[in-house]
Write a sequence for this structure.
């Protein structure tokens, strides 16, 4: 990833919370339906993204949550990141779970592993940013000059892409 890149993701967060509710047998039928739908969506768009010159880094969002995987990109690239939580896609059916802190067991282990490396000024973001995802979406960075090509690719495939922040020189901040 390079300073100035746009940080993008392909699936909303909350899969881990939905899965935890399902395992604990407290999920509603609607929550289970949404969970199943998201679990079967593939990340095959990654191969197309890999062919775009301006895509500089890419990973999936899985067990370490969005923050853990973002930190991997930042450390590997020697950069920082600023996330605008208002632009992070969230699964609507998981909102009540986030508010009640129905989190997978690994969520707190995730936070304990990287809390010293992150500044989170938006406390509403906490449950979402540490939520371990099962078959989460892709997290990738793209040069600002190439973002239109990425947008066009997603439009052609009738898929959504979410622009959630920027790569900066240092630090990881969630606003």
């Amino acid at each position: 990833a390079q300073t100035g890149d746009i940080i993008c993701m392909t699936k909303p967060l909350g899969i881990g919370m939905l899965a935890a509710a399902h395992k604990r047998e407290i999920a509603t039928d609607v929550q289970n339906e949404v969970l199943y739908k998201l679990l079967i969506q593939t990340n095959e768009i990654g191969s197309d993204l890999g062919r775009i010159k301006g895509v500089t880094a890419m990973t999936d969002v899985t067990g370490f949550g969005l923050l853990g995987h973002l930190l991997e990109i930042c450390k590997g690239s020697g950069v920082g990141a600023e996330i605008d939580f208002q632009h992070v896609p969230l699964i609507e059916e998981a909102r009540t779970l986030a508010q009640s802190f129905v989190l997978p067991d690994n969520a707190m282990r995730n936070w304990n592993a990287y809390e010293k490396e992150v500044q989170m000024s938006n406390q509403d973001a906490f449950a979402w940013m540490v939520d371990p995802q099962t078959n989460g979406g892709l997290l990738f960075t793209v040069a600002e000059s190439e973002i239109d090509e990425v947008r066009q690719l997603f439009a052609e495939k009738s898929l959504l892409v979410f622009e959630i922040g920027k790569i900066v020189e240092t630090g990881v901040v969630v606003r």
